[in-house]
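Backbone-to-sequence.
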């Protein structure tokens, strides 16, 4: 079997600079490195290799990518393909998937591996797009991958919105891996020197049998209109002097004053939206089990408030969500619903993508098809976009309507340090949006009653079978709608530190989330991850404990009322994104905060037991 591993060269993150005059990131002279998630995919591929198998690495990019392919050969890969030609310049996801699929078809790769995301764009959509091009199943955000006997399938453990699940995946297939799947490989520099550059084979569009119009800027329905630096909008008051008790007491004075200021209520949903078919957009509201997926109601509200002239409808696949949730969808602003294969007992992301294709056949003038940016939502969106040859924007956080009837979608890039504004010239646009960006509306009931319309689609094939699921521990408080949220970083010290924090959460009536490092380490389930590749929240108070303050985490707090951060390092970046900061050790500061902060939040005196 041939195992193909996709590699992407990304700028070293700490070297990326923003040019305020050009309003763009500066890539010239910036060192390129192997995307760390692709590094893990390479290790998985090498560990899955058996006698007689071949591991081929493939990358699309300019000449400076070549040394990274030689590095992969030095680490143990058997072959290297470099898709390099001026015609590839400016390729977006759709164009890139066309070129990569053309390079892979001749060898008939039994397994294609890639990182679940890249550090420069974080879309997580190339794997699903490629799977649709190759007409094979896909699973994203794998935590572990192993071959099974005697059927030759893969046993894949992958993240889900509420925990993780184990899947049976037939080959050939595409799998993207997350940080927990493997540790990066470290090679011997001398081995790199022994790799002859001639072992890297260069291919252009002609050798791939791809027309020039399918790749590059001509074959790309999306384009970056501008890139802007994300400016901080908070200025922390820092308390670093005195005893831990004195620092905590002084900080609480500022926190109490901020908590007395009531946040303005969310504006009501605009009415009436347009009835024009070209102003209708749909939101996929069901997850991999047919359930109402986390974040779907928030995404509906974001679209309604951002695009008041557009009509928003819900799309569901499978037996759920239950009819009792129709009122939630209606209240959130969905004006109607489309039901795809409503009686399907089992389905996978490819089946849902096929259902969306059937919907597009019935409603060809849709303005946009939107999915929540979960692993399942990305799998569906990527496959649908490739099948329908549409442009796709991943992890958009804002949208504006343009005069020409199109949209400009804004998404974080380079770990959230910049905001890229992306236009899509294909209709409809396909977009993933993180849940929690907007407050869930409850005033959407108006006009005709909410009703589902059935859309006929092909019977589900369900090639990816879910064998068992593991949801997060029940004792953790629910995150959605929480007034107080505590975030923990690696400074919490591990699962034991989180366990010691549970009584504090109970006293504050707080929910718990974590940084990507905490989730990747397995200390919290994936649905508790907050930030660029997780969820966004808008609590009245956020308390950040041991959080370093990486930009890709802090973007998740953009709508928080007050942010209180505690960190032992006075230079920690978290203090630049907080309102109030306390410098100190968590075990010394947090006990001083528990009771005073509980009273400030109106929790009443502690009950002695």
């Amino acid at each position: 079997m041939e195992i193909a591993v996709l590699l992407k060269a990304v700028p070293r993150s700490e070297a990326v600079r923003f040019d305020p005059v050009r309003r763009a990131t500066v890539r010239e002279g910036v060192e390129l490195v192997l995307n760390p998630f692709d590094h893990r995919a390479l290790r998985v591929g090498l560990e899955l290799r058996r006698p007689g198998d071949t591991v081929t690495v493939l990358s699309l990019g300019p000449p400076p990518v070549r040394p990274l392919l030689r590095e992969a050969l030095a680490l143990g890969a058997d072959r290297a393909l470099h898709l390099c030609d001026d015609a590839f310049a400016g390729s977006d996801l759709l164009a890139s998937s066309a070129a990569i699929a053309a390079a892979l078809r001749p060898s008939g790769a039994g397994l294609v591996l890639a990182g679940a995301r890249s550090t420069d764009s974080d879309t997580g959509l190339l794997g699903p797009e490629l799977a649709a091009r190759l007409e094979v199943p896909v699973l994203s955000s794998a935590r572990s991958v192993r071959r099974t006997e005697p059927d030759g399938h893969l046993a894949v453990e992958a993240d889900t919105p509420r925990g993780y699940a184990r899947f049976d995946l037939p080959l050939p297939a595409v799998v993207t891996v997350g940080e927990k799947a493997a540790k990066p490989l470290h090679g011997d520099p001398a081995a790199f020197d022994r790799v002859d550059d001639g072992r890297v084979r260069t291919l252009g569009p002609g050798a791939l049998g791809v027309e020039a119009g399918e790749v590059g800027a001509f074959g790309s329905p999306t384009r970056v209109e501008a890139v802007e630096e994300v400016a901080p909008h908070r200025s922390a008051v820092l308390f670093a002097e005195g005893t831990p008790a004195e620092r905590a007491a002084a900080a609480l004075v500022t926190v109490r004053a901020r908590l007395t200021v009531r946040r303005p209520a969310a504006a009501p949903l605009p009415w009436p939206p347009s009835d024009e078919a070209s102003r209708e957009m749909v939101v996929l509201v069901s997850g991999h089990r047919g359930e109402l997926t986390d974040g779907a109601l928030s995404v509906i509200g974001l679209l309604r408030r951002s695009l008041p002239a557009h009509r928003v409808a819900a799309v569901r696949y499978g037996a759920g969500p239950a009819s009792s949730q129709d009122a939630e969808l209606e209240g959130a602003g969905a004006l109607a619903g489309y039901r795809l294969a409503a009686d399907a007992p089992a389905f996978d992301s490819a089946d849902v993508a096929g259902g969306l294709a059937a919907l597009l056949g019935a409603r060809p003038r849709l303005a946009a098809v939107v999915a929540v940016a979960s692993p399942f939502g990305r799998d569906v969106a990527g496959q649908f976009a490739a099948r329908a040859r549409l442009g796709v924007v991943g992890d958009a956080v804002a949208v504006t309507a343009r005069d020409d009837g199109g949209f400009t979608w804004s998404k974080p890039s380079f770990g959230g340090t910049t905001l890229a504004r992306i236009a899509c010239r294909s209709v409809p646009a396909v977009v993933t949006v993180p849940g929690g960006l907007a407050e869930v509306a409850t005033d959407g009931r108006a006009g005709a009653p909410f009703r589902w319309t059935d859309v006929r689609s092909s019977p589900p094939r369900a090639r990816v079978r879910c064998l068992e699921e593991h949801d997060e521990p029940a004792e953790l408080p629910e995150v959605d709608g929480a007034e107080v949220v505590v975030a923990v970083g690696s400074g919490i010290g591990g699962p034991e530190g989180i366990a010691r924090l549970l009584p504090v959460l109970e006293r504050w009536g707080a929910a718990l989330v974590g940084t990507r490092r905490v989730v990747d380490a397995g200390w919290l389930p994936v649905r508790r991850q907050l930030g660029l590749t997780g969820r966004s929240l808008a609590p009245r108070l956020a308390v950040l404990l041991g959080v370093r303050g990486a930009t890709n985490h802090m973007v998740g707090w953009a709508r928080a009322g007050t942010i209180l951060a505690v960190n032992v390092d006075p230079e920690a970046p978290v203090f630049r994104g907080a309102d109030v900061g306390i410098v100190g050790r968590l075990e010394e500061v947090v006990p001083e905060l528990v009771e005073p902060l509980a009273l400030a939040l109106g929790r009443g005196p502690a009950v002695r037991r």
